[in-house]
């Protein structure tokens, strides 16, 4: 959900809901022409017909989604505004209504095809509606959808074994969670319990989730509320383009060491960082 870095504007203290609305404005500003993250502005991408003037040509693809006759952009936007939290926002002034997905492609309400380079906010890498994935989901859902780890069922153990077999080194134990926030909350909790230390080193500009511990690890003002967030120390992020030390990795490493030496007891529970910061 990284939307703007919080550095775009000086703000008066605001109630939380207003802050979310202002995140929305910052997001729009960040995506405005000239601030766009890519050479094509968001509006241009949304407006460009597939393979039309200015749009990169996509290869042929042997799938055409069935004609869509469901609710369209205006109706969905109106219903969202009425029944969902005002904290939700969307990309683009005229938001995309994504109605179909197949492998690496998405289709909007008019059947227009998009290459999905953002799957699951850059976290889901199995594409859309892969037949093997669908088959596994349907087969399991037909048998039983949920019990609890307090009872036995072979599926979770088989899945853990299959995942562990793909992992390198000592990464052989799996802990399933429902979201990135939950995974990071758990990782921070495990690190703290195992080490007996509370301090965590995180990187500025990072996003790790929006619950108690992960909000502390997150380092973007847009995504923080005014609640207690203890024990996280934010070192400089090694951004080769905008970072204080350019691409001098040793200087960033030294900043982490100094953060530990001068900001903590010297014993930290762990270090958390995205493999690649996506904003
Ligand atoms: C790097 C990173 N970590 C954690 C999260 C939180 O994941 P979730 O939204 O599934 O709780 C996100 C979500 O965008 C993320 O991008």
From TrEMBL:
Bias-annotated ranges (Basic and acidic residues): 7-17
Lineage: Eukaryota, Viridiplantae, Streptophyta, Embryophyta, Tracheophyta
Name of protein: Uncharacterized protein
Stretch list, region Disordered: 1-23
Protein's organism: Aegilops tauschii subsp. strangulata (Goatgrass)
PANTHER family in alphabetical order: ALANINE--GLYOXYLATE AMINOTRANSFERASE 2-LIKE, PTHR45688
Record GO cellular component, one term: mitochondrion
Keyword presence, Flavoprotein: no
A family per Pfam: Aminotran_3
GO terms of molecular function: pyridoxal phosphate binding; transaminase activity
Cited InterPro entries: Aminotrans_3 (IPR005814), PyrdxlP-dep_Trfase (IPR015424), PyrdxlP-dep_Trfase_major (IPR015421), PyrdxlP-dep_Trfase_small (IPR015422)
UniProt key word Kinase: no
SUPFAM superfamilies (UniProt xref): PLP-dependent transferases (SSF53383)
Keywords carried by this UniProt record: Pyridoxal phosphate
Family: Belongs to the class-III pyridoxal-phosphate-dependent aminotransferase family.
């Amino acid at each position: 959900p990284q939307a703007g870095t919080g550095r775009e504007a000086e703000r008066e203290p605001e109630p939380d809901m207003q802050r979310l609305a202002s995140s929305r404005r910052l997001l729009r500003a960040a995506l405005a022409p000239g601030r766009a993250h890519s050479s094509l502005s968001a509006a241009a991408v949304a407006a460009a017909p597939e393979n039309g003037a200015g749009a990169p040509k996509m290869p042929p693809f042997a799938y055409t989604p069935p004609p869509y006759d469901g609710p369209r952009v205006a109706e969905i936007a109106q219903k969202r505004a009425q029944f969902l939290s005002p904290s939700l926002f969307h990309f683009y002034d005229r938001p995309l209504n994504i109605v179909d997905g197949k492998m690496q492609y998405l289709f909007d309400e008019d059947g227009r095809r998009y290459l999905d380079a953002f799957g699951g906010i850059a976290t889901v890498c199995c594409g859309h509606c892969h037949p093997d994935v669908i088959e596994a989901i349907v087969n399991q859902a037909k048998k039983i959808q949920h019990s609890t780890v307090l009872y036995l069922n072979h599926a979770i153990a088989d899945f853990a074994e299959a995942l562990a077999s793909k992992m390198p080194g000592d990464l052989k134990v799996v802990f399933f969670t429902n979201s990135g926030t939950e995974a990071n909350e758990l990782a921070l909790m495990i690190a703290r319990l195992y080490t007996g230390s509370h301090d965590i080193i995180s990187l500025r500009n990072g996003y790790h989730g929006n619950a108690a511990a992960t909000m502390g690890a997150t380092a973007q003002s847009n995504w923080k509320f005014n609640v207690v967030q203890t024990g996280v120390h934010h070192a400089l992020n090694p951004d080769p383009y905008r970072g204080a030390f350019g691409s001098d990795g040793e200087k960033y490493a030294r900043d982490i060491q100094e953060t530990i030496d001068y900001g903590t007891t010297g014993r930290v529970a762990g270090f958390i960082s995205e493999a690649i910061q996506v904003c």
